[in-house]
Amino acid sequence: MGMNIEAKMHVEKGLYLQLDTGISIYLSLIHLILAMIHFELSALSEAQTCARSALLSSQQSNEKYYEAPSLIWLGRILNKADPSKFDEARNCIVQGIEICDKLRIQPFSSIGHFMLGELHSIAHQRIKAIGHLKKAGRLFQEMRMGYWLAKTQEILDRL
Description:
Blueprint (H helix, E strand, L loop, with lengths): L1 H20 L5 H14 L3 H17 L3 H18 L4 H18 L2 H17 L3 H18 L2 H13 L1
Helix pairs in contact: 1-2, 2-3, 2-4, 3-4, 4-5, 4-6, 5-6, 6-7, 7-8
């Protein structure tokens, strides 16, 4: 947790510097990274605010490359914060995956499938969860994304 707090402090400092200079390029990425950090710190309200800021910034700057993971992470955060928002969360993740697939961004697409599998596992939709997790696992293995492959296997082992 200490490293996450330190990371948050450094990313926030970068955000303030960027806002002070008025440079908007990669602003969506900084908001997305903050959303991820807040998620890991279980500060879900802040994570959701940052993910929405990342999404809005990416759309305003026409940064589709960051719009996709912003949608995917927003979906993950929404579901963790309030499982009753399953449909909204699922739609965000699916929309993010569709953008990834259109742009051929396989690493983000595979993370989207992981998060969709995670969402379905939380909702006790075992068959759907396994399908997305196995697809994510194959892609992670092909791309040698060991961290995500291990996380995928953890969920599959619990199912």
